Amino acid sequence: MHAAKELFSHRKFWAARFGAAPFLPMSRAEMDALGWDSCDIVLVTGDAYVDHPSFGMAIVGRLLEAQGFRVGILAQPDWSSSADFKRLGAPNLFFGITAGNMDSMVNRYTSDRRIRSDDAYTPGGAAGARPDRSVIVYAQRAREAYSAVPIVIGGIEASLRRVAHFDYWSEKVRRSVLRDARADLLVFGNAERAIVEIAHRLARREPIGSITDLRGTAFVRRAPPAGWIEIDSTSIDAPGPLAPHPDPYATAAAGGAAPDQADSAPQVVRFARQVPNARRDASFIRLPSYEAVRDDPVLYAHASRIVHIESNPGNARALAQRHGDVEVWLNPPPIPLTTKEMDALYELPYRRVPHPCYEAAHPGAAKIPAYEMIRFSIAIQRGCFGGCSFCSITEHEGRIIQSRSEDSVIREIETIRDSVPGFTGVISDLGGPTANMYRLACKSRAIESACRKPSCVYPGICPNLDTDHSALIHLYRRARELPGVKKILIGSGVRYDLAVKSPDYVKELAQHHVGGYLKIAPEAISEGPLRLMMKPGIGAFERFKSMFDRFSREAGKEQYLIPYFIAAHPGTTDEDMLELALWLKKNGFRADQVQAFLPGPMASATAMYHSGRNPLRAITRESERIHVPKGIRVRRLHKAFLRYHDANNWPILREALKKMGRADLIGPGRQQLIPAWQPAGTGDDHEGRRRPAAAMARAKPFRTQHTGLPDAPKAKRASGQVRGAPRATKAGGGKG
Questions:
Q1: How far is 549 from 140, CA to CA, in rounded Å?
Q2: 3 state DSSP class of 661
Q3: Which of 229, 388, 543, 689 maximizes the CB count within 10 A of its CB?
């Protein structure tokens, strides 16, 4: 792994003399109270400002403050004009812009492209506080307000849209958001290292156009630098001949060379394996151009595969993608933070509450749902090596797990216990993107740095992966022994195929850290969709369930698993959904809320949805074609199979079962799925009705979540309904 400068080793900027602010200022009056005449950096976010380390802008803001900079925040500014963007004056160094902890389109629209009626990251849960494609709109308004101030974009929306990407809401391939926002720099992934370097270099009066060497950044340039080796991406995967035949990798504009490229054209290498390792840091991979992937779904799938292959910070090369007459250039991903850096980052002086302006504006009615859900939770790790094709976590946070020290986590629990209003002794979560990857890593750093596998746990758990859960078990035990702490709950998703490798962990979890219900994510049961999701077979879930039930009984506890499933994922047929519905009925699970697959930008499953090809394997013109359930009717049908018990879904299910030749499943028997009769006031009149948006807002974007409870006591079933806001991101810069 490449060396990286320690995050807190920079000499502090002169404004450090002002000390830490109670809250990062959101108004001129607050700046005056702090003695500031100006801000060095102004952060713009689509979320309300909550000074809590589960909110990306709080992390970035407090980190920059710790470097000595004066940081102001414009949270959910009025985007109808540039006036609100002048509220704090022109920043001395740059605007930092993010859509917030979620992609703005995922935040505002359901998987059926309907506008949500609420927003969990807004006071009172009110909808409409942010625009569509927030990063683009905010960047435009900031440029209108102060045209000379550099603009740096980041967070989940910018990170996942850093290259040409399929946009589900417009059903087309869009340009890199860097081009549409006309920003100077884009920071992707966990942005702490890059944003700190950018701030210090701009403070030294370096022009932002000269900052082209930072990992985890993307920018526009006219041509590749002289002397670099260009690797044609088709030498890694060969999409095959094109029709028509113009070269999709051409870097020259029609009729001649690119403006500043004629005298410094890079050497073109057609076979990646011929590139000497010594030249890796001076080589880049040319992706098909934006225009090529826009017009050719096969090339889009090919480009998506290359982006995912080149995601390991230990061996990734720079990427270049032509957009018209310019290059969008992506440097390799950022180097993960060390445990020492993670500790320092999460122990900055967060107030752990929303900015007081919200309560002042709406006394007693300004609760922010996302904050209410996570205010007593603690991030102990980042990253995920699961590589699920539908999920955005790996694309944003990376596959290498970054863990905090046990002492740091204990100190944060004590801080919550002693200072956060309303604490009753219950920590709602110790986790991260997953609950049980804490301190898990490859047994060999050399292998880890060289590996290009998209997942460490699919199709089976890699023999090089350390699956020892003892460090996590010890953390759990130490945390629950703290005075004043009554219960430590685990709210993050448990990776059950890992958990079964450590029966002691499952025992610890079931007997001490479950509040009656534990959420788990098999996602599907059929081999077809599971293979494309990169999820383990249902056997792993059943092994975990057996362990969980046994240890719960030993502790004298009645506890249930709540499985999540995805409807209408690429590769899923009607027959797969029928099989799942029958499995649910056989096992006594009833789905409370269901959401169809939402093709989020940059996910591998989104490339499947758009192209009908499988980018988990090499892409050719003749490569595997996959079934993609598209259209409102088939998506509703797949959701209806998950809610087979809802009488409103019976008409569409009866019609489907007859077409599938499975009319034998219609009737009153225990082995039949739905009855032939229809209760009054249900059925066609209610089909496709819109559910409240709060029911759609869930913990992890781009995936289905629902409550499934055994057909046991009705009171138990009712109390198990999951309600709540999307889980706030634990990534510096935001999450999806």
A1: 55
A2: coil
A3: 388
Q: What is the DSSP letter of 169?
A: T
Do 606 and 615 touch, CB atoms closer than 8 A?
Answer: no
**Which residues is 185 bridged to in the sheet?**
152
Whether the CB-CB separation of 63 and 731 falls below 8 Å is answered with no
Specify the DSSP class assigned to residue 626: -
Bridge-partner residues for 118, per DSSP? 126
Distance of alpha carbon 529 from alpha carbon 573, whole angstroms: 8
Tokens (6 digits) for 252: 């020259």
Residue 392 is predicted with a pLDDT of 84
- Pick the closest to residue 133 from 84, 179, 89 (CA basis): 179
Give the Cβ contact number of residue 626 at 10 Å: 18
Largest CA distance in the chain: 78
Structure tokens belonging to residue 246: 């113009």
Cα 577 to Cα 55: distance, rounded to the nearest angstrom:
36
Residue 261's closest CA among 217, 227, 218, 303?
Answer: 227
| pTM for the predicted model, two decimal places | 0.88
10 Å Cβ neighbour count for 668?
A: 9
Q: What is the CA radius of gyration of the chain?
A: 25
pLDDT in tens, 15-46: 999 999 999 999 999 999 999 999 999 999 99
Nearest of 736, 731, 54, 735 to residue 412 by alpha carbon = 54
Other beta carbons less than 10 A from residue 100's beta carbon? 32
Helix axes 632-642, 574-587, angle to 10 degrees: 20
- E strands, 383-425, are 402-403
- Residue 220's closest CA among 231, 205, 232, 209? 209
pLDDT > 70: percent of the chain: 87
